[in-house]
Give the backbone structure.
Amino acid sequence: MTIHITDPETDRLARELAELMGTSITAAVRAAVKNELNRERHKRGMPAIK
């Protein structure tokens, strides 16, 4: 399964995050989505995912 990022700003942000993390764009996007998902789950009193 793939995600195709067509928004230039989103692409830039993902690439910058990957560079700062020293990892791939895929790993950086995974980490960012996981962090945001856990933040939203926390707001709703739901357990975090690992």
Summary: The chain is about 65% helix and 0% strand.
